[in-house]
Amino acid sequence: MQTKVIKISNGKSKNKDIALASLIIKNGGLVISPTDTVYGFLADAQNKKAVENIFKIKKRPKSKPLPIFVKNLKMAKQLAFIDDSQEKVLKRYWPGKYTFVLNSKPIFGSIREPSKSQNSKLYGVGKKTIALRITRHKFLNDLLKKVNKPLVQTSVNISSQNSLHKIGDIFATFGKNKLISLIIDAGDIKNAKPSKIIDLTTKESRILRI
Fold first, then answer.
1. Which residues pair with 207 in a beta bridge?
2. In whole angstroms, how large is the CA radius of gyration of the chain?
3. Which long-range contacts (CB under 8 A, 24 or more apart) does 175-178 make?
4. What is the spatial order of strands in the sheet that 151-155 belongs to?
């Protein structure tokens, strides 16, 4: 199947574009999307095959967990243990260009219907910790609200190589890859830098990536 392409400007998109991207993700497809930092691969964190395809396409070791986009703090609390002091930090920096490592909950309740007993596992994350972020990017926020699930995310590149921020390079490298269902084309991202990563699992927070 040929990779679909949607062009957006200033993070804005039409409802039908959000609906298409949401449908693709819910059906296990991979999406390349701009974020408020760099271009990223997105997939349903509850779909094992989709997450495995991200590791495959990036040639990323499975020993390196994937970060997660969540739509709001409520969803973050469903996935991680967050105390009052940690919550103050998250509220200070979210939404934005900060990924926080937190202690993960051992059993992930259903994101869509947390009151039900049925549980749904997340794939590609650490066994005891989880890296979460709430983005400031409008398209992604709209998509997260529509999908209503946590999305694994990682920069668009081959593992250990520089992330790609020019749309031409992304098309040249991944445009014909059959594992990619959709590319959101927002043009080149200027001054593209990955998110800062801060570990909140210890008494003193640690900066893992500046």
1. 198
2. 16
3. 175/3, 176/3, 177/3, 177/57, 178/1
4. 4-7, 180-185, 30-33, 40-44, 151-155, 68-69, 129-133, 98-103, 196-199, 206-209
pLDDT confidence tier of residue 210, bands split at 50, 70 and 90: low
Q: Which positions ≥6 away from 34 have C-beta within 8 Å?
A: 8, 11, 40, 137, 139, 184, 186, 189
Express each pLDDT in 98-151 by its tens digit. 999 999 997 654 444 444 433 478 999 998 999 999 999 999 999 999 999 999
CB 18 within 8 A of CB 146: yes
Q: What is the DSSP string of the chain?
A: -PPEEEE-BTTB--HHHHHHHHHHHHTT-EEEE--SSS-EEEEETT-HHHHHHHHHHHT--TTSPPPEE-SSHHHHHHHB---HHHHHHHHHH-SSSEEEEEEBPSSPBPSS-TTSS-B----SS-SSEEEEE----HHHHHHHHHH-S-EEEEESS-TTSPPP-SHHHHHHHHTT-TTEEEEEE--PPTT--PPEEEE-SSSS-EEEE-
The two three-digit tokens of residue 19, written as one number = 């609906």
What is the model's pLDDT at position 3?
Answer: 93
